[in-house]
User: Fold this.
Amino acid sequence: MHALVVTAVAAEADSVAAGLTTPLPYPGPARSAVASGTPGAPGPSGSPGTAPGPAPAADHDVPGRTLPGGRTLRRYDAPGVAFDVLAGGVGPAAAAAATAAALATAERPYSLVVSAGIGGGFPLAAPVGSLVVADAIVAADLGAQTPDGWLSVEELGFGRAVHLPPAELTARAAEATGALLAPVLTVSTVTGTAGRASELLARHPLAGAEAMEGFGVAEAAAAHGLPVLEIRAVSNPVGPRDRDAWRIGDALAALSEGFQRLVPVLQNWRHR
Assistant:
């Protein structure tokens, strides 16, 4: 199993790496995880902050495989699973471009692409500090406003707005990590009002979380014929913007623990 894991920013990539065992960077010998804080963790809007999140499994001066555009892949090996971890940038466009670059220049074929990071949770479904595994990856604001209401890009006849990860994999991943299995909405603008949260839930009543990269990652994976998985750790409630309610450190820690629990699932999963 060879998986590409795409996050938005370095703090999320570090948290993913901290959850993986036997880190092995490109190139060179294996390195051990070292406990430290995670400065510069992002807020839900992409603004910098400081959070005491989990330790990076490799420092940023570790050599890595550099992609076109300058982003760096780092390699981590767990028993039976190799992971390439990439901080691809904030938003669906950056995520799609970085994922496509990684897939097009892969040194060996990937079996799975994973979109991972923190995000907002719809409070009644996914409280702060919990995990959500996507059973649907939805482009929630790709479409048009009309006098009669919202029309998705699919309803407009211009493409697709939903990617469905493998059902067996998502069920196993949710069970292993203790995550909610629910749709994750990809948005280009983070929700900051109660009205916007209500509007999204009216269109997607089963949604568990919102984030900014999943659909972009899924589009690139689909272009290469690869399955996709999305896992989100909830850092804040979806609704009125309240920085005091953000728990970025807790979310990063949950993301790291989630990947520790995800590894055995991927060891035993083969895409058909």
